[in-house]
Design goal:
seven-stranded parallel sheet, 7 helices, 7 strands
Length: 209
Amino acid sequence: MGYSIAAKIALVTGANRGIGESMVDALVAAGAGKVYAAARRIDDLAPILARHGARVVALRLDVTDPAQIREAVAAAPDVQLLVNNAGVAGYGGGAFANIGSLASLVSFPLFIAYSASKAATHSITQAARAMLKAQGTQVFGVYPGPIDTRLAEAVPFQKTSPADAARAIVAGIQAGTEDIFPDPMSQAMGAAFFADPKAVERQTASMVV
């Protein structure tokens, strides 16, 4: 079942740069009524506020700080769509998208800790999908390959721009695609994984240097 973005109220965590910033742009372009842009430092959100004016609301949120999480919940009680780009989501209605990685599905030996954390995100996404189904909440898992952000500066693969990835994520949400692969590398590896997981495991194991 598709999830319409038009007139919806969304919240994007980690919205000051990279995929998070591009997700805000893509949601506004898709017709969202309001987007809360959350970041640790409000000042970092100045460029995105300048681009979109009143349609974007700055929200101070460090997802590792329980007090700030409570403050954000109180400040944004009308959220219908959460793009969980940095942290975890609580129990609520509407929809949310967890930004994982190809490393959610198969471990990359060069990035052991990262792979483990993203595998946990995948597990949480699956559990949340089952838990929240009865209340009509849609849960989307997003599994990008290398995206051209500061986090991936040292990753030795061809990268997709955050803007292109964000547009693909929004399109996947609107189409109701539960597992979203928003770039060419993730689409190819995702298809290979579902066809033969062990073959992909052997492929990534060969990347050890």
